[in-house]
Amino acid sequence: MLTDESKYWFALLRGPGIGPVLARKLLDYFGGAAAVFAGSAQHWQALGCKGEALDWLRSPDWSQVAVDEEWLAGDNHHFLTCFDDAWPAQLQQVVGAPVALYAIGDIDLLKLPQLAIVGSRNPTESGRGAAMEFGKHLAAKGLVVTSGLALGIDAASHEGALAAEGLTIAVCGTGLDRVYPRRNHGLAKQIAEKGLLLSEFPVGTPVLAHNFPKRNRIISALSLGTLVVEAALRSGSLITARYATEQGREVFAMPGSIHNPLARGCHQLIRDGAKLVENAEHILEELAPQLGHAGRQMAAASTVAGEAVSSAAVDEVESDSPLLAYIEYDPVSVDELVERSGLTAAEVSSMLVMLELDGVVTKTTSGQFLRK
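The chain above was modelled as a monomer; its predicted structure follows.
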């Protein structure tokens, strides 16, 4: 809802040189956004404003504010400030947290327990599949799956949550009038309809590299914990994990093959104290104390279901194709399978088709195969 105070909030967020820390100082001192602009240059300077920030507070560009006002009139568009009842409590204790958020969708999701899932933008097929399964399983158990709408692991986790008809939040690194990356436009639309899109950046904010680490601190802060599925040693996902640690949140990491460079970041996190997880039950068990009685029920139900699924899978594997003994969790080519198994190329190809149909193995984009 647009109020007279709203336009001053929009103006404050657009002020050059006025980041979240300075904005919070101004708001705490003056008591509100309109009061900030009614203040004096002497007070502004004493609080740390200088140069362009002072010029803006004296004479903001109201035409830019009009863009925000027009956006807010859109269907299911929301603007939350740190003074609102709907403001997520998780952000209140975070140093440098935003003072306001733009949102599209169901803002009540911010009151529910969340689990962040992040990782590589160019994951392996098994990594992408794992992210989707984690997202699906955790959302089905009642956790909101929170991520950053990026390609790869982020998108897969959102898709998993939606596939389970669960809830998901996408924290964006641009203004909410645009979708980045464009390939996720359809996914963003689904999230806006069934979940929540969130950003601290004003309408019209383009793709800027330095805004994505800022987005990451919100992803981790909103969540009880952060799961890193696949990440190289210099991955932005490790920034999210670092923020989670600094914010007192749990950090989980999925191990992978020592030959997979996208597993090295996860292995580093585990060496640094992150909790190694192989399935969603490990996360639910760890979070159960924070979730109370409901969390313990989640973990117990998941463990029973997981054991049943694992048992069934073992029975199926034992009675299935002899080729399966030669397929591991690292990609392997048809030629390698022929060499390992002693079967003909035709026999291997035929068995691979059946294993794919049974959902036991998956084919990578490079034409190799691995266990699911």
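The domain at 320-371 is CATH 1.10.10.10 (Arc Repressor Mutant, subunit A).
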